[in-house]
Design brief:
The chain is an all-alpha fold. The chain is built from 16 helices and two strands. A two-stranded antiparallel sheet has the order 1-2. A hairpin with a 2-residue loop joins strand 1 and strand 2. Helix 8 packs antiparallel against helix 9. The longest helix has 28 residues.
């Protein structure tokens, strides 16, 4: 049975309104850094940057900087840097996954080609580093540059598990930590460095982002089997790509011999037919894979909320503590 988290107070639009003006400035910084000297870069980058994402990672940077009482302007360029890194990884991910749709619209690689997507992704990574250097903080540069390499490591780790139906729970969680949670963690932690917070505060903000990102990815993986067209999440994509996520890991670990042979055929041997996804879903439901995945997401969400307990009450703290709830219940 699926547990329940605390009742939501806000939705994502309420949270956006708290940093609305800052988000506008972040978008200006991104646009100014992309430039229009090369039309292909401008067109491709703008295609994905305006594709309807919620901008949660830069919002985390903006909110945590406000939580730490920052009053300057450097948080804007750092939030832009975080968004550029995320966008670059999306471009690369879609090429690797051979994706045709993202957020309900055609992917950049489908419209512009794989080579263009990879090169523009590299361009956005480079621009993010220019923004890091311009900030002037070596400690922040160290965190964000390390995060960029960790993201790449996570993608490689995931690639090695494709078609490996014996991938275990720990390997899966390591991939999430590297591929998703690391950027959330950095987006939050850099605010502590920007405002010269003590080590404990920095640690708490780092953990907040890590827990939030982990919950976010767990729910995303569950949505592949329960679907939500409003979120642009097409049901069964991960299954068809041979990705091993927690609902599948739970199902395989509990499967009998016949069921294990089924998983080997559809994942390792890539011998799939039109009815196989329905059977996979039935086995996942049999062993409660979706609920177990969602409950684990709830546990990480609760940890994220609690990691901010020592901060004084404010609208920014409330908003940050609502984000984990929104991440978990975005399919509702």
């Amino acid at each position: 049975m699926l547990k329940r988290l605390y009742k939501k107070k806000y939705n994502i639009d309420d949270i956006n309104n708290l940093v609305k003006n800052d988000l506008i400035e972040v978008q200006k910084i991104i646009k100014n850094n992309i430039g229009d000297k090369i039309p292909l870069i401008d067109n491709l980058a703008n295609h994905i940057l305006t594709a309807g994402g919620k901008k949660i990672r830069p919002i985390v940077t903006l909110l945590t900087s406000k939580l730490c009482n920052y009053s300057g302007k450097n948080h804007l360029s750092l939030a832009a840097c975080v968004e550029l890194i995320h966008t670059a990884t999306l471009l690369h991910d879609d090429v690797i996954d051979e994706s045709k749709m993202r957020r309900g619209i055609p992917t950049a690689n489908d419209l512009f080609g794989n080579k263009s997507s990879v090169l523009v992704g590299d361009f956005l990574f480079s621009k993010s580093f220019e923004l890091m250097v311009a900030n002037g903080s070596k400690s922040i540069l160290k965190i964000l540059s390390k995060t960029s390499s960790t993201l790449a490591e996570g993608e490689v780790m995931q690639l090695t598990t494709i078609k490996n139906y014996l991938t275990d729970d720990q390997s899966y969680m390591n991939i999430i930590k590297a591929k998703t949670a690391s950027l959330f963690s950095a987006a939050s932690e850099i605010s502590a460095l920007l405002t010269n917070q003590d080590n404990q505060t920095q640690k708490n903000l780092k953990k907040y982002g890590e827990y939030l990102g982990t919950a976010f990815q767990l729910v995303d993986d569950a949505l592949d089997y329960i679907g939500n067209e409003k979120l642009g999440k097409k049901i069964g994509d991960d299954f068809r790509e041979g990705k091993i996520t927690l609902p599948v890991i739970i199902a395989i670990s509990n499967s009998d011999k016949e069921e294990k042979n089924f998983w080997k055929r559809v994942i390792e041997l890539e011998n799939r037919n039109e009815d196989d996804f329905k059977r996979a879903l039935k086995i996942i439901e049999k062993y409660d894979g979706i609920n177990i995945t969602m409950n684990r997401a709830l546990e990480f969400s609760e940890c994220a909320i609690k990691s901010l307990n020592h901060f004084p009450e404010s609208n920014f703290k409330n908003a940050l503590q609502e984000l984990p709830k929104i991440a978990v219940y975005r399919n509702k």
